[in-house]
Amino acid sequence: MDWTAITVTTTNEAVEAVSNILMEHGASGVQIDDEKDYEQLSKVDWAKKGEIVDVDEIPHVKSGARVTAYFPATIYVPEIVPEIKRQVIGLKAFDLAVGSAEVTTDKVDEANWATEWQKYYHPVQVTRFLTVVPSWEDYQPKAKDERIIKLDPGMAFGTGTHPTTKLSMQALEMVIHGGERMIDVGTGSGVLSITAKQLGAGDIRAYDLDQVAVDSAKKNLDLNPIASDVKVAANNLLNGITGEADIIVANILAEVIIPLIPQAWGLLPVNGYFVTSGIIAEKADQILAAQRQQGFKIRQTLKMGDWYGVIAQKPGDDE
């Protein structure tokens, strides 16, 4: 079966929002070609890993990012392209820089589509303990305490390569000590829920507004038996959710974090942690101020490139 690829030329800042738009229009997966990812690949000592990789030979953008989505023949692409363009331009209303926002299409046969993902993804050691491994890789841990997170990057974004995902994983490593109840808001590929399980978290509930992302997360959870008991469902942020959680994590757009702050406050016990990422530098002060106004104490801010992550905590009466 032939597929149609729709590519949006945009900025690093808008990658996740553009990916969401494409998935909502029925894409079977998104591929992100981001200059920031290639900066990270170029820093890897591939010889030490026993591989010969010339990063410069991998086709990639020199600036900004391209988000490519693949649509089956059952979707009439010419009909949805104008709407995709309109929605991408509309992201400016949320103060997101969208770059040229050029939308192009191309035909791709199924064999090429199936192998495209594998060009761009390799095992990524996010922290000393956490390594994200594409599902097709035969990867062996390099240390006894290394924990492997298996993902199929072709299903959804959130593969451990983007700075916002890395910051979230690093933050979870800092706050999880064992047995914590957690809620994962905007779970995407499910990578943060799997991370939390690998770090020893207890009961986990994961939510995403998009049913495609929910289905993707379930498939990735199946690749990681340790996360088999994670509960995944479609939901709009934490609307209607009850029951306390010791940790609430959200790797989502800064604009979406704002309405989530009071919801998280209501579900966290004293000393519970609110971990957020997906915050571009220009929005960091706004998010920090909103969390402080709610009553959260900012325990730590994490930074990678232009992106921030925040570890906040609900304090007791003595603080």
TrEMBL record:
InterPro entries: Ribosomal_L11_MeTrfase_PrmA, Ribosomal_PrmA_MeTrfase, SAM-dependent_MTases_sf. CDD domains: AdoMet_MTases. Its EC number is 2.1.1.-. The keyword Magnesium does not apply. One of its GO terms (molecular function) is protein-lysine N-methyltransferase activity. Pfam families: PrmA. Keywords: Cytoplasm, Methyltransferase, Ribonucleoprotein, Ribosomal protein, S-adenosyl-L-methionine, Transferase. Methylates ribosomal protein L11. One of its GO terms (cellular component) is ribosome. It is found in: Cytoplasm. It catalyses: L-lysyl-[protein] + 3 S-adenosyl-L-methionine = N(6),N(6),N(6)-trimethyl-L-lysyl-[protein] + 3 S-adenosyl-L-homocysteine + 3 H(+). Coiled coil: none annotated. The gene is prmA. This is Ribosomal protein L11 methyltransferase. GO terms for biological process: methylation. S-adenosyl-L-methionine binds at T165, G186, D208, N251. Belongs to the methyltransferase superfamily. PrmA family. Its main location: cytoplasm.
